[in-house]
Specification:
This protein has two helices and no strands. The chain is mostly helical. It has a domain of 59 residues. It starts with a helix and ends with a helix.
Length: 88
């Protein structure tokens, strides 16, 4: 039995496995980034809606503290970075 072709095939399969793994990692990070952006966008829409409601019904809705909002946003991004090892 000729071993070099078998060894070449094994090397080729290992190379493909590495490429598939790299692609899965890229797709996973893209999904994580997309999820983070969707969360941030939803929060922005909620803030805008709350702002309109607080102007219209000041007795029912409190104004949003922008500094607190930015601080929470930063904390959220940093926590997602830590959990998912995003390298931000």
């Amino acid at each position: 039995m000729d071993l070099p072709p078998v060894e070449e095939l094994i090397d080729y399969v290992q190379e493909l496995e590495g490429k598939v793994f790299d692609q899965e990692m890229t797709n996973n990070k893209e999904n994580i980034y997309k999820s983070i952006l969707e969360d941030i966008l939803t929060s922005c829409y909620d803030m805008e809606e709350n702002k309109l409601l607080s102007e219209r019904y000041p007795e029912l809705y409190k104004k949003i503290d922008a500094e607190k909002l930015v601080s929470n946003l930063k904390d959220y991004i940093m926590e997602m970075n830590r959990i998912n090892s995003l390298g931000i």
